[in-house]
Design goal:
With about 160 residues, this protein is mostly beta strands. The protein has a single domain, classed as Jelly Rolls.
């Protein structure tokens, strides 16, 4: 299969974060284009972020590269260095293992749309510097920084 039918691509709303960390990304919609195309080495998502929406909690990955390309709208990229405006045609890259927490916020009055591309790693350890959250598949997923697991969120 070469052409992906966006209407049939798996779509995910919100995030898988435990409460209360899921709330700021609640309006995010992701069409999982890489999954729809059968890709296994890297993921590709088409993301729509509503006004006031967050892409994620600020984070960085130990073993996964990430890349974003803004297709429409305006986003504010927040990193350790501060804030940078991204507009249609702008892109950003986040190499694996670099402890530079990042995320994007839509502070505009219109939805923003971007592509995100990332490595798929079995060792998906992810750090969240601003909140008491850590992702470690060996510990069952999301946990506190001390290793205590969060309860699964219903709904």
């Amino acid at each position: 299969m070469a052409k992906i039918d966006l209407a049939r691509a798996p779509m995910r709303e919100g995030s898988g974060y435990p409460a209360p960390f899921h709330e700021l990304a609640a309006g995010r919609a992701k069409w999982q284009l890489g999954d729809a195309g059968g890709l296994s080495d890297f993921g590709v998502n088409l993301v729509e972020l509503p006004p006031d929406g967050w892409s994620s909690q600020r984070h960085w990955h130990e073993a996964e590269d990430e890349f974003v390309y803004v297709l429409a709208g305006e986003l504010v990229l927040v990193t350790n260095e501060g804030e940078t405006v991204l507009q249609a045609g702008d892109c950003a890259a986040f190499p694996k293992g670099v402890a530079n927490g990042h995320h994007m916020i839509n502070r505009s009055d219109a939805p923003a749309i971007y592509l995100e591309v990332g490595t798929r790693s079995a060792d998906g350890i992810c750090h969240y510097p601003d909140v008491d959250l850590h992702l470690d598949p060996a510990r069952g997923g999301f946990c506190r920084k001390d290793g205590t697991p969060y309860p699964k969120r219903s709904g």
